[in-house]
Amino acid sequence: SSAAVTAEREHEMMTRYGVTNQAHFVETAEQLDIQQNKFDWYDQSGCLGTDFAFGHFVHPTSRMVERVVETGSSVVWQPMSNGRLGSGICDTPTLLKRGVRVGMGVDDQSCTDLSDPFQNMRTGLYLQRALHSDASIISPLDMLTLHTIGSARAIGVDDRVGSLEVGKYADFLVVDPTNPHLGPIWDPVATYVLACGLRNLAEVVIGGTTAWCRDQEQPLRTEADEQATARMIAAGAVSGFTPVR
Question: Which among 73, 95, 118, 126 would be 20 to 30 A from 44, CA to CA?
Answer without folding.
Answer: 95
